[in-house]
Amino acid sequence: MHTRRPADGEGVAAPLRLPRGLLESVLEHARTSPRREVCGLIARDRNGRWRRYPVDNVADQPEVAFEMDPRQQIGAFRRMRERGETLLAIYHSHPDSPARPSARDLAAHRYPEALCLIVSLSEPRPRPRAWRIGTDGAVPVPLEVSGGWRTVAPEWRR
Question: pTM, whole model, 2 decimals?
Answer without folding.
Answer: 0.86
